[in-house]
Write a structure and sequence with these properties.
Length: about 750
Amino acid sequence: MKKILFYSLLFLSLAVNAQQNLVKYVKPLIGTEKMGHTYPGATVPFGAVQLSPETDTIPYEMNGKYNGDVYKYCAGYKYEDKSIVGFSHTHFSGTGHSDLGDFLVMPTQGKLQMNPGTANNTKSGFRSAFSHANEVAEAGYYKVKLDDDNILAEMTTTNRVGMHQYTFPKSDQSHIILDLMAGIYNYDDKTVWTYVRVVNDTLVTGYRQTYGWARTRTVYFSMSFSKPFKSYGQKNYDARQAYRGFWGKFDQSKNFPEIAGRKVRMYFDFDTNEGEKIKIKFALSPVSQENALQNMRAEITGWDFEKVKAQAQATWNKELNKINIAASEDDKVNFYTAMYHAFINPTTYTDVNGQYKGLDQNIHTANGFTNYTTFSLWDTYRALHPFFNIMQPARNNDMVKSMLAHYDQSSLHMLPIWSHYANDNWCMSGYHSVSVIADAIIKGVYNGDANKALEACIATAKKRNYEGIGYYMDLGYIPAERSGVSVSNTLEYAYDDWCIAQIAKKLNREDVYQEFIKRSGNWKNNFDPSIGFMRPKLADGTFKKEFDVLSTHGQGFIEGNSWNYSFFVPHDPMSLMAQMGGKKKFAARLDTLFNMHLPDEFFKDTEDITREGIIGGYVHGNEPAHHVAYFYNYTDQPYKTQAQVRHILKMQYKPTPDGLGGNDDCGQMSAWYMFSSLGFYPVSPGGDEYVLGSPSVNNASLNLENGKTFTVEAINQSDKNVYVQKVLLNGKELIKPFIKHADITNGGKLTFYMSAKPKK
């Protein structure tokens, strides 16, 4: 028996040692208020808990108007700030709008202060000054010294539980603040209600309901301390609460075990010795306090912080080792940071017992799949979900099932647009869950009822009262008078309809195929051949006269201009090229896009577009044109795709705190980086084809879930050798710059021969 155990441990040791320590290349701090909106906290891949510092608590509105500075705090953390107000358990990664920031915890010592104070006077409240010199951000772990109170804060996580470790100085006035009113994109009415129950001197449970980006959202928690607190209390800041019942019989401000209100902060008091560590386990649940406690007990059994940290980092290493690359040190940091970002979202939305709250606000059980939320689909359908279909197919299969569960629970009978904590926040345009579902079906990833999935896609695409779909169905476009984003909606619907047609074709649904392949050509109705651009069209069939192809404001497009959106026909580039005058004129138009100058005035009203994310007139920092650099492959000048891709990789992604040229948008920017670094890209998800570019890695091994390996090798790779002379797939030269999904999943080798001179 001992011999078997010994060999088992030896095998485990060898398996662990076979993995590279890739966590060291991950730099979660990449992203500032201008570029990225990422956060540096602790999470595990696709984790429900994302534990991170907040550097300020500025309000969403001031004097009844939107406060533009709040946009800098989409992730709660701004690199330029000098203080931390606490550590909360839920965050978005790289979004251009926000919510979350639930259950902010802050350790302090000295006189108890229940307000966060101000950034220019950190000692006026419970916030603390900090320095990046005393900050460590790694995959699965975060550490910072809180200078004002001389407290070392550390945190790590499991899937559903955040673990804090605070090292205190000697004090008989040590405190831990639990702020139940703090949040990201906060305003007076955002917190609908909070409830706290002090079960004993080490265990607290409760919930928080908010009205925000998700309109009806409740999160339950269970909070356990490693050391009993000596006293506790709360302050309710809701001066407007008119009816208070008869609870005034009790002094609820101190040592009262049941707290309820809209604006509540709690505190827990301790005596601490020099260097004493107080630890917290903080579990979340979408269902109940009991489930939160069950999640905690299932995922962290003791108080060994280092063990939990090691498990979190081992989990990250396992995921990161799915791709092994040889490249420069900077490129490794870029690549594995991108991989880290790509594996943060979507997030687990299922308790350990399989329960979750559905869109109907009832409790459901996920049978045979993990339920996910945080689907930023306008962004992530383009590259993130296609990347999952290669590197995370089992998870993406569950994500599709989560979308179909969303559809089943929807009172509107629609697939998700932007799925968020048992809500749809309806952000952005298109119905791009259709694209994700089609891509998974076409590539053989989805193992459920494809015909049922197709019916959900059809029902969503025929929801006449949503975002101009009725006009789109009747006229073939959305009239400019009826929508401020009429053109982009028409273009995005046309692409999604092509995706539906691909599912129908695979399932031999000829009637559906013919209907939706016809709809997929509706983009032509917004193309004005007299100017060669997409243009708003009025209800009478004429084009809008007042029109500016450069402006992002009031021209019929969402977060983009006509120069970028006029290339948004990813499903039919050959027809678009014909409309624009053929290969030479099409290539010349692309040249102009990448080489023109776009003055600041043309995007000053669009928060999501900044100068850092622009190359010529091409906006890489926002998503609508992410496929466009690959369009040269449809002309006779594919070498220009190779040059532009490498230029974008160098210019838009850097291993620095401000290293992203735009919001990461839940992993889309990062997925673009990984695909392009590997030398291929999914121009039109929903098909089975990838378009070749110019790999920046020397070589890469993709270790697939089916046990096979796909290898990319770049011969004569260098920063100067960006041009491809020839490409071999399994030793056979490719005639065209395209490969199939099966070429990857079957395993094999893709070899690029690189040169400093273009092959024309």
